[in-house]
Amino acid sequence: MQRTAGTTYLDGARRAWPLAVAVGGFGLTYGVLARQAGFVFSLATFAGSAQFAAVAIVGDGGTAAAAIAAALLLNARYLPIGLSVASSLRGRPLARAAQGQVVVDESWAVSHLGGGRYDPRLMVGAGLTIYGAWVACSVVGVFAGRVLGDPQALGLDAAFPALFLSLLAGQLRGRRLVLAAAGGAAVALATVPFTPPGVPIVVASVVCLAGLRRPAGVQEAA
Amino acid sequence: MTTTWLVVLGASAGTIVLKGLAPGALGGRALPPRLTAVMALLAPTLLAALIVTNTFASGRHLTLDPRAAGLAAAVGAIALRAPVLVVIVVAAATAAVLRAAT
After folding, report:
1. In chain B, how many domains are there?
2. CB distance A188–B3 less than 8 Å?
3. I need a labelling partner for A18 at 20 to 30 A (CA). Which of A89, A105, A130, B93 fits?
4. What CA dihedral angle connects B44, B48, B54 and B55, to 10 degrees?
5. Which residue is closest to A38 within chain B, CA to CA?
6. Residue B75: which of A18, A83, A165 has the nearest Cβ?
7. What is the torsional sign of CA A129, A132, A136, A137?
């Protein structure tokens, strides 16, 4: 609804390019692992960790149903994430649903203005930039084969928490938000041993229900 | 090959629905204040959950590996007000060096 004056899609792209570099590295590895079908998967799905999980399960001889279930559980977080951006989007339902497609963890975090408001232009600009990097690097990975070393040897798996932490650091204004973040982290960690990967992130979102108790806090946060 | 394409189709269709559902159904409307208060907490909560699971989880196990050192390095870099790209590179390099050394 409320848009920062004068933000453009290009601003979103500009904010997203360091993230696009990290995502590109991830996409390259993914392409190497996934081969031909993986490139179509990247075009159609745009959710890195879910794609990795599905490819790993199929590679281990798992069933299609198991692979699809794992991918969708990992992506279940897009329900609460979609809910969080919904009121900031405009246009017809189909146009809003289309804007929802460019939401990934990174573009969602970049477009947060604070207080639960999101800038749709930043979101789309950042989302398309990251999508481009993801698809392009998946394709390169498919063709480059195993020339590249082990992604873990490059520390790429440590790049993602660092990225999310720097985004979180910019958003922690006020005690309520710090408490919510700490609560979310604690619940997610406590859930890890009991659920498949991806689910702890969904479970952690119940912490936000604390917001129901003190709606007056909205003014504080904004 | 059939399994692969089934997965590509099923996972893609499901993800499109998951991502489009809330924006399509609820977008463009002012939400009640109580719901807005919940939404305001979603971003930090989910980010924090993403950070800890990406750092300390390996499947269903909690582990302490070089990713944790990378995260600690990121905390230091953020405290020094380093730009995002520097924070990412510092974290990745820390994990990579630690892995190479062990």
Report:
1. 1
2. no
3. A89
4. 150
5. B8
6. A165
7. positive
Domain span holding position B20: 1-30
Measured CA to CA, the distance from residue A36 to residue A52 in angstroms comes to 14
B90 within a domain of the structure (yes/no): no
Alpha-carbon distance A88 to B26, whole Å? 10
Is A4 an interface residue toward B (CB < 8 Å)? no
Asked if B24's CB is within 8 angstroms of A188's CB, the reply is no
Using CA atoms of B93, B97, B100, B102 in order, give the dihedral in degrees to the nearest 10.
-130
| pLDDT, tens only, A142-156 | 777 656 566 677 787
**DSSP per-residue string spanning A129-166:** HHHHHHHHHHHHHHHHGGGS--TTTTTHHHHHHHHHHH
Work out the burial of residue B9: count CB atoms within 10 Å of its CB; fewer than 13 is exposed, 13-18 middle, 19 or more buried: middle
Number of Cβ atoms within 10 Å of the Cβ of B31: 15
Report CA Rg, chain A.
Answer: 18
Residues B11, A66 contacting (CB under 8 angstroms): no
Question: pTM for the complete prediction?
Answer: 0.70
CA distance A43 to chain B (A): 9
Contacts of B89 (CB under 8 A, 6+ apart): none
> Taking CB atoms and an 8 Å limit, are B33 and A83 in contact across chains?
no
Q: Would residue B19 count as lying in a domain?
A: yes
- pLDDT tens-digit readout, A155-205: 877 887 887 798 788 778 889 999 999 999 999 999 999 987 777 877 888
Burial A99-115 (b: 16+ CB within 10 A, else e): bbbbbbbbbbbbbbbeb
Q: Quick check: A163 and B84 CB within 8 A?
A: yes
